[in-house]
Amino acid sequence: MDRDPQPRPPWRRNRKLVKGGFRDLAYLPRSRTGWNATLAAYAFSVRLKLDGSADLNRWAMIHGVAASAKVAELGDDALVLWHGTSAGRAEKIRDVGLFHKRGLWTTTDPATAHNFTRNRSTRFEAGSAMIVIVLDRRELEADVDYEPQGHDGNIFRLHRGLPPDAVEYILFDDRIEFIGAYKTRLPKPWGVARFKKHEGHWVPRSKPPVRFDDTHTYNTFDDWLDLSVRRILDELGSVCAIEVFSSLYATIDPTDALEHDRVLAALEDMCAAPRQRKGLKGFRLKEAQKL
């Protein structure tokens, strides 16, 4: 009997969008169905590239996930590391932590870690996952606790394993989970909007008007989308399209409601002509469009 064909992996490159100038959207899914382990990781990577650093708690906020008290307390001493693995192994890491006989490979750039995610999830057919680790950089000494690798030293080959409490977040294909010991009240995670199909259109599950934030409500899907895109641009300033898509996918249910062309059209309507920044298209909200 022939085996059922394996589903195509979700991270096939979207060559069409790359050719259109959206290098950051290389891994945007071709269909409207998204995944968190890829989009949210690359969104963090883009912010790291643009600013030289990235605020993990702000990243959590715009993805509708609780902020980490550990990150807030450590401040500039927080070392955020990423580890790519399979979804099956991630479930074990939640309970027993991370270890490897030849060392534990982590990196400050989730785009680098995603290479390992693709490798392990393909090899074991177990789905993809990204592990977010937070350490106190004051407790680490180069060549003693870890060996810096990579052309810019962004890979940390740790000489020891890590307990479960070193992990703050796990990104699966369908969700992002906070598993740290303590949450912090601020920044408050953005809420998830819920829609349903009615007569061929996506409409809010709750009776409109639906609360968006402390000062705004929405009546339709398009209302929510416009408010959401403006909020992301207001929060981050100049953004890449992957950051917009990643936040939208994480704060809507179901993700099938999102149409790629509608999101790109919203960016075009609300923003000035995009500027190239470090090889990426940067969008900035027109002054008249700010919330």
What descriptors fit this protein?
ADP-ribosylation fold; 22% strand; 3-stranded antiparallel sheet; 291 residues; 33% helix; alpha+beta; 4-stranded antiparallel sheet
Chart the SSEs and their pairings.
Layout: H1 15-19, H2 36-51, H3 56-62, E1 67-68, H4 69-74, E2 78-86, H5 87-96, E3 104-107, H6 110-124, E4 128-136, E5 146-149, E6 155-158, E7 167-172, E8 176-178, E9 183-184, E10 193-198, E11 201-204, E12 210-211, E13 217-218, H7 221-236, H8 241-250, E14 252-253, H9 260-270, E15 275-277, E16 280-282
Parallel strand pairs: 10-14
Antiparallel strand pairs: 1-9, 2-4, 3-6, 4-7, 5-6, 7-8, 10-11, 12-13, 15-16
Question: What features would you describe in this structure?
Answer:
The chain has 291 residues and is of the alpha+beta class. It has two domains: 15-54 and 190-289, no CATH class; 67-184, ADP-ribosylation fold (Alpha-Beta Barrel), CATH 3.20.170. It is built from nine helices and 16 strands. A four-stranded antiparallel sheet has the order 2-4-7-8. A hairpin with a 2-residue loop joins strand 15 (275-277) and strand 16 (280-282). Helix 2 (36-51) packs antiparallel against helix 8 and helix 7 (221-236) packs across helix 8. The termini are far apart. 36% of the residues are buried.
- Terminal CA distance reads 59 Å
Radius of gyration of CA atoms, rounded to a whole number: 19 Å
Number of domains: 2
Proportion of residues in extended strands: 15-25%
Treating each run of at least 4 consecutive H or I residues as one helix, how many helices? Answer: 9
Which spans have pLDDT < 50 for at least 5 consecutive residues?
1-6
Q: What is the SS-derived class?
A: alpha+beta
- What characteristic shape results from the CA principal axes? globular
| Helix-strand topology string | HHHEHEHEHEEEEEEEEEEHHEHEE
Largest sheet, spatial ordering of strands:
2-4-7-8
Helix content: 25-40%
Secondary structure tally: strands:
16
